[in-house]
Amino acid sequence: MFPKNTWYVACTPSEIDDKPLGRQICGEKIVFYRGPEGKVAALDDFCPHRGAALSLGTVCEGKLVCGYHGLVMNCDGKVASMPGQRVQGFPRTRSFPVVERYGFIWVWTGDEKLADPDLIHPLEWADNPEWAYAGGLYHVKCDYRLMIDNLMDLTHETYVHTSSIGQKEIDEAPVNTKTEGDMVVTSRYMENVMAPPFWRANLRGNNLADDVPVDRWQVCRFTPPSHVMIEVGVAHAGKGGYHADPKDKVHSIVVDFCTPETETTMWYFWGMARNFNPKDKALTAQIREGQGKVFAEDTVVLEAQQRNLNTFPERKLLLLNIDAGGVQSRRILDRLIAEEQPQTQTA
Amino acid sequence: MFPKNTWYVACTPSEIDDKPLGRQICGEKIVFYRGPEGKVAALDDFCPHRGAALSLGTVCEGKLVCGYHGLVMNCDGKVASMPGQRVQGFPRTRSFPVVERYGFIWVWTGDEKLADPDLIHPLEWADNPEWAYAGGLYHVKCDYRLMIDNLMDLTHETYVHTSSIGQKEIDEAPVNTKTEGDMVVTSRYMENVMAPPFWRANLRGNNLADDVPVDRWQVCRFTPPSHVMIEVGVAHAGKGGYHADPKDKVHSIVVDFCTPETETTMWYFWGMARNFNPKDKALTAQIREGQGKVFAEDTVVLEAQQRNLNTFPERKLLLLNIDAGGVQSRRILDRLIAEEQPQTQTA
Amino acid sequence: MFPKNTWYVACTPSEIDDKPLGRQICGEKIVFYRGPEGKVAALDDFCPHRGAALSLGTVCEGKLVCGYHGLVMNCDGKVASMPGQRVQGFPRTRSFPVVERYGFIWVWTGDEKLADPDLIHPLEWADNPEWAYAGGLYHVKCDYRLMIDNLMDLTHETYVHTSSIGQKEIDEAPVNTKTEGDMVVTSRYMENVMAPPFWRANLRGNNLADDVPVDRWQVCRFTPPSHVMIEVGVAHAGKGGYHADPKDKVHSIVVDFCTPETETTMWYFWGMARNFNPKDKALTAQIREGQGKVFAEDTVVLEAQQRNLNTFPERKLLLLNIDAGGVQSRRILDRLIAEEQPQTQTA
Fold this sequence. Notes:
Three copies of one chain form a homotrimer. With 347 residues, chain A is α+β, with helices and mostly antiparallel strands. Chain A has helices at 144-151, 156-160, 168-172, 197-205, 281-311, 324-340; strands spanning 7-11, 21-25, 28-34, 40-44, 58-60, 63-65, 72-73, 79-81, 98-101, 104-108, 132-140, 176-180, 183-193, 214-223, 227-236, 249-262, 265-274. Helix content of chain A is 22%, strand content 32%. The model of chain A has no long low-confidence stretch (mean pLDDT 96). Chains in contact: A-B, A-C, B-C. Chains A, B, C: InterPro entries: Cholesterol_7-desaturase, Rieske_2Fe-2S, Rieske_2Fe-2S_sf, VanA_C_cat.
């Protein structure tokens, strides 16, 4: 259950720089590669000749060459040539709209006529020298919506991430959730608390004292199909919190693209963008390593949750106030999915 | 096909001393943990909030805390609390009757109203300073009844355990099998034979000569649902065999709890209890290591047998006199399983 | 979809010299072992007593002894004896016609009345001191017919084996395919080309210059059920090519037995026979190692192709001139399979 007329993050540029990449997205087996002038291309990962995986092939002069018998593809899915063959009558392979932007490769698996690059979610921190970004990719065996639920209810930090970003005060802070058009925002503000270890390290990374009380905030924003951007940060207490002067705070954006692979598996592109000390590469690497460990903890919980839901598909779950972020996000998804269905049965 | 209104061994105390344990027993996914005052508790391993695996959580002041969002469970399956929530209306999670006794945790997956701890199979050697016990646990991919068949027909020792406890004379000794109420007893006595390596080591462990003829015995007792206790031993020949004076023999009880996980997989709790030199811990460790190797040989044979039976479910097998122990044990199981079925179709 | 009234290569002698071998061939689980006087025998790998895998047993005086309870089998599938049992009434186990010839064990999984050893494909190079042979075995997760397609269209060498035997001129050389009775022959001849690395090493192995132009040939012969023998070689250019004097060429036979395990998995017995420098064991080992690396490249492509075909079973594939070898081979297989079907529905 995922919308298809939308842009998903499919991979990062480095994954296709050297050779084609085969990856399943929204149930479609797709080969991603760099076509003419290095422009990214995406095709059905199935050679029309004998069904070989095109992703095992090579790119030659911007064309994808099947690694089995040398059929040559244009990036629009038309066969360009094949040794010793006349290819005019060869069937065309499905191509997928694909765009490289903001340091990611975005793919559209739905109706290609609707694939407008302007619909790609803007990332204001990308390609911005005042910001630094680093992240990673996890394959997670769960419905991508479980990950959205996870990210839209950060009370889990207290229990899943006890030694890094969790702290008791998260639970105690009231949560506010609202839907604004196709965006869901859920936020929490904590005042005059001690920072947990991950944030203490960040304070030090911005040359701020880490042993004094802070104000802490979490503002999670879901946008379709499966992006969750979370503004997180701490400021020395009493300096204005979220609105404090940059010299008194550390502030980051947790970046989460939850791309469905199948109904019950997903690609988790996670990362963090920050605008303090952006040129400090050692700090960037340190934050990435810490975040990688923290987010690996989520995958264990979510995969076990998915196995439980597979075993007991009929069980009703609770919907509490803390679940409002996930519930409202799923409501948007349900509407988008419904809008994609054929209208034939309407009276 | 297993009876559910009965006590199965679920785990050993050490498996839950540090943290909760998730384990499937008779098809039920269960979390075992130590509740108030260290008393063992067992609940459905499924958080009523979002379906997380409770076994990934922690125990705090005797209560199980879900490792996802901090829902707190009492050991009766009622929700005790949850940060920021009013939990009175929360659904109750199924709890399972569970008892710690004789060095094992016993669970009842059937009708809890019938769960009488007095029905737990008595183990006279447990908690008895004149006896020593050690054992282990194997996960085996076979129907638990194949393991019962195995243990109730020890002719297999000659072929599966050639280098340790097998000897040709087992085959040649007549076997006697009888059902006594809900117990099946199958026994064999060999006279004036040379002890195989495992038993020679035991003779030495009791300071007895290992190079003289012995009388050997095997008395296997099946009791429902899946316990097989086997009295085994050797005595210097002509000293009275099974009834010989303790100074002339070595005598042990092979302990086997064959707990179903699913219809075709099981947890095999194996061990050995002995009443000679019970304080010799090195001997205990040596026997445990030897038994572990011997019983691993069974798992290879049984898993291949299960694959064969899966491939050819329609094939009829032979039922020989040596199979009487397994046949009579299954007859008791079939009756118990039938008695558990609803009586509605009876005229 | 495979013919059953035919001889398949099941294993090599060394696989059964020390102990029985369990292997699935054409969907049949079979135990292969050396019976009386070392003669190979093949039985259903299922003990009639309790369904144990006979392949876990031992051979004693030419009889197969079940490794569970000691049932003793004759090589015709009749039970010879069992400790303490009268076995006259025991059911007979299916035996399979099996022959050791040419350094392979051949099995017939169809109607045993039709199993004529004279139908085994002759291998003129086997047991011939003027030839040397070495090979290996790969388990490949694909329909055996995908491997036949692969071997009957060597244009793939250019793309799959770029660094060893591939070269652009293969594509450019015309291919000729014809069916002769139950044999399909597809051939290619290249003139005045530079030899690729694998063939340069072979030239040096026959003390021939490797840096001069050569004529190269590939003559692939499919015979049912799944043998593909490929005459391959290079001669110094202008010396007569395929017909050149032995001192001016290197010539080998690529040997491929593609034995079905199940509908979508196979055993790939690959090897190479050569008649130059046959006593040079270091050369034999070097060729075997090189061939092993080359043929492993095929398995990656074919397993990905099989996964694609599983995902899209309805997709039509192209049938080009280069596919004629595979197409004509499958046509013979289809006819043989049809001939094996019962004739009852014929009017």
